[in-house]
Amino acid sequence: MQKCLEIIPDGVRLNFMEVCGTHTMAIARMGIRASIGEKIRLISGPGCPVCVTSEEDIALSLQIAAVKDVIITTFGDMMRVPAGGKCLLDAKASGARISTVFSPMNSLEIASENPNSKVVFLGVGFETTSPAIAATVLRARERRIDNFFVLPMMKLVTPALRYLCEHPDLTIDGFILPGHVSTIIGEEPYRFIPQQYSKPCVITGFGEEDIARGLLQLTKMTVEKRPSLENAYSRAVPREGNQSAVEIAERVFEPVFAMWRGIGGLPLSGLGLREEFKRFDARAEFDLPQTEIALEPNCRCGDVILGKIQPTQCPQFGHKCLPTNPLGPCMVSSEGACAAYYKYREV
Predict the structure, then answer these.
(1) What is the tally of structural domains in the chain?
(2) 128 lies in a domain?
(3) CA distance linking residue 337 with residue 342, whole number of Å
(4) Exposed, middle or buried, 306 (CB in 10 Å: 0-12/13-18/19+)?
């Protein structure tokens, strides 16, 4: 880290955003923010898929959970994300049938064991998760499991990055790009960042050496005014990514308009089921009306997700908003910025 600081001229302050919740957790756990002082400000961006899931989608999940003979399957982080003052854990306590799973494929076994129920998997995630969800849909069709559905809420990273580059209120000098997503999509989808917006960016991993190396490369590019895309995680991220995984996801899903918490609607930033697979779409199966959501007035997760404030700048952080009583998803998710800052606040 010292090498980064040595090459930054006196009086210069650099703002780097890490666009990955795992990076946010790793940086907090290792105490990296404290070790780099004031010359580099690390900002947590919209890299946690649970955190960016919109209030409307959470509310729709709760509506579906309330339907008779429905079983919701979901990753555990989604259970306590609030919408309108309620969460899936509350719904389960009230009698809804909700099961946490480690893999989308677990949902098929639940569907096979409960043929008289409709099993709905909450499809949350970025490009890392969408191939596994797509493979589950393909397996369901192959096995003719007709009572399995997906509520597609997946997001794409690059439209959010473009939004951040164009945001008039954000000053971001460079990006630490997500390691996990990059193993799937490779390097090329990020090329527009230096080419169109003259901002350097680096793909890196999650160990201390990975992050230190990535920060050093990003600092050098910024100080030298040499915007480029560099890969400091080539042992895991080939230039072309994982084409087999990309092809599976593209076979089942297509880009669609999506709502993001903190951002709003972005064209072609989510994934929806292609026409060939529409019978697995929970939105079409249940056709429930859109409900108005009363947002938690004291929660500033949206500003945290955009990097407008750090979690500790929210007046509710550590007071009314705690892991045991979260006001928003950033304090719930294992990759949420508020959860990271709170868990490692003494590091």
Answers:
(1) 1
(2) yes
(3) 9
(4) buried
- Check if the beta carbon of residue 231 is closer than 8 Å to that of residue 240: no
pTM above 0.70, yes or no: yes
For the chain, counts of helices (H) and of strands (E): 16, 11
Give 3-state DSSP helix, strand, coil % of the chain, rounded to 5: 40, 20, 40
What percentage of the chain carries pLDDT values higher than 70? Answer: 98
The closest of 180, 193, 196, 185 to 230, measured between CA atoms, is 193
Residue 57, in any domain of the structure: yes
- Tens digits of residue pLDDT in 132-178: 999 999 999 999 999 999 999 999 999 999 999 999 999 999 999 99
CA distance 336 to 102: 19
- Within a domain: 55: yes
Task: Enter the tokens of residue 173.
Answer: 């000098």
Alpha carbon distances (Å) from 185 to 28, 58, 152, 188: 26, 27, 19, 8
Other Cβ atoms closer than 10 A to 342: 20
**Could you tell me which residues come within 8 angstroms of residue 67 by beta carbon, excluding any fewer than 6 positions away?**
118, 286
- 113 is a domain residue: yes
Domain limits for position 270: 50-156+242-286
Q: Which residue has the tokens 């508020």?
A: 338
Which residue, 142, 135, 140, 154, is CA-closest to 280? 140
Regarding predicted confidence, which is higher, 124 or 289?
124
Whole-Å CA distances, 172 to 4, 18, 129, 175, 190: 17, 10, 27, 8, 15
